[in-house]
Amino acid sequence: MIFAGMKLPIACYLVSLLSVSFVCDAAEFDVAATATNQLAVDLHRQLATGDANLCVSPYSIESALAMTFAGVDGETRTEMARVLHLPENDIAVPASFAALQHSLEEMSAKTAELVNESKKIGGPSEPIILNIANRLFAQRGYDFRQDFLSIVKQDYGAAIEPIDFVANPAAAAQHINKWVADQTRDKIRDLIPADALNKLTRLVLANALYLKAPWADAFSEKPTQREPFHVRGGAAVDAPTMRKTAQFGYAKREGFTAVSVPYAGGDLQFLVLLPDDVNGLRALESKLTADALAESGKLEMHEVDLHLPKCKLEPPTIALAKTFQALGMKTAFDIPRGSANFNKIAPRKPNDYLYISNIFHKTFIAVDEKGTEAAAATAVVMIRATAIAQPKPPPIEVKVDRPFVYAIQHVSSGACLFLGRVTDPR
Structural domain tally of the chain? Predict the structure, then answer.
């Protein structure tokens, strides 16, 4: 039953695991990649306020909200475009995200072929495993606009699944959470909090990604040993640390060092930004920009003796509504009351319209000698009312023994699928 004078919630849920990418015409995915990195920096500055570890998937969040953006109108559209760094021209946005997703999906197929060849010479024995899935969980019988449903299905590959939030919102949440867990191989569970949905929820837009990526050249377990790490920039404690001397991307910048470690296939990399000072993390983060991230996408190769701590981060679900409101996206949350305009998702009536009630995000990442496994989930809840031989120089030693910024980065576009900081690898 729809009650007059009440606002209905839509829920847009996005789940993402670590992603990998492929070579593609840069112009095709430039809008999506640039927007993802700009949002990444904005979110990092908003969320990296304490001294704890941080892991977010800007690609996951941007992708979920890009689907929502397909149904926004008026001042709400202007605000979302500004905060998400998207052009108001909606034609360019879905096509760009479709191109970036296609580029990512090609990765698994490419590395599967590489594995067959590399096995002959003792190379990586496992391909990159990547799963990207989009889905719309839509209230049965609600008056959604067909144009919106067509866009998210065509450009985001989001299948539409009818569901009944009115009859049993708790069961609907459990159903969506199970879908999320299935898509992320159980790395993201209970994305949607128990009380996040109610009888007024009308739509959940979900994007799920899973990645398991082996290094292009695995670290041997033999050199791994406990080495000092200055936890939160303070006293050093011993932490399991991998070590390898090889050709890595490397650059010395003002105040920090950048090192990139490639995954199988070379289209995805783990980027480390290491401050010069033991307690220099905040200074580094203060000058972090989207351009700096993009420039770090293609570092010059050098012989590097790399000491890299193993880590496993599994932070709890975080609610991002206040974060996005602080960034300037207010009318999407119906602030002030009556201002939300998602007329392109469903007809907007004075007493029956949609708005975002919250955005939930959850991540997982583990880095070891074999490679990286990562997951992320985002839920946007909307309510009614993404030459000549020269002497060989000695390798450059880089000890990652202090808090650092990291990213899982698509090399071709520079887009950061994950961005965060490690202040305590234990």
Answer: 2
Show the domain range for 287: 225-309+388-422
- Give the C-alpha separation, 301 to 298, whole Å: 9
Rg (CA), the chain: 22
Do residue 43 and residue 181 come from a single domain? yes
Of 14-28, 106-120, 229-243, 246-260, the poorest mean pLDDT is in: 14-28
Rounded CA-CA distance 259/84 in Å is: 28
Please classify residue 30 by burial: count the beta carbons closer than 10 Å to its beta carbon, then call 0-12 exposed, 13-18 middle and 19+ buried: middle
pLDDT in tens, 4-50: 333 444 444 443 333 232 233 445 888 999 999 999 999 999 999 88
In the Cβ-directed half-sphere of 260, how many Cα atoms lie within 13 Å? 25
Mean pLDDT, the chain, rounded, equals 86
Cis peptide preceding 193, ω within 30 of 0 = no
Measured distance CA(399)–CA(28) in Å, rounded = 38
Q: Are strands 129-139 and 158-163 parallel, antiparallel or unpaired?
A: parallel
* pLDDT confidence of residue 265: 85
DSSP-derived 3-state class of residue 170: helix
Please report, for the domain that includes residue 255, its CATH number: 2.30.39.10
CA distances 1 to 140, 142, 148, 165, Å, are 12, 11, 24, 11
CA distance 278 to 133: 40
pLDDT digits (tens, 9 = 90+) for 194-206: 888 999 888 888 7
CATH number assigned to the domain comprising residue 81: 3.30.497.10
User: Do 304 and 319 belong to one domain?
Assistant: no
As a whole number of angstroms, the distance between CA 333 and CA 349 comes to 16
| 82/179 same-domain check | yes
CA 277 to chain CA centroid, Å, is 28
Give the C-alpha separation, 354 to 68, whole Å: 11
The H-or-E segment that residue 21 falls in is none
Angle at 102 between CA 378 and CA 268, to 5 degrees: 75
**Through-space distance between the first and last CA atoms of the chain, rounded to whole angstroms:** 51
* Residues linked to residue 418 through DSSP beta bridges, in sequence order: 408
Residues 6+ apart with CB under 8 A from 148: 70, 71, 344, 345, 346
Task: Tell me which H or E stretch contains 181.
Answer: helix 169-183
Is residue 42 in some structural domain? yes
Cα–Cα nearest to 417, from 62, 13, 49 = 62
Q: Which residue has the tokens 């606009």?
A: 145
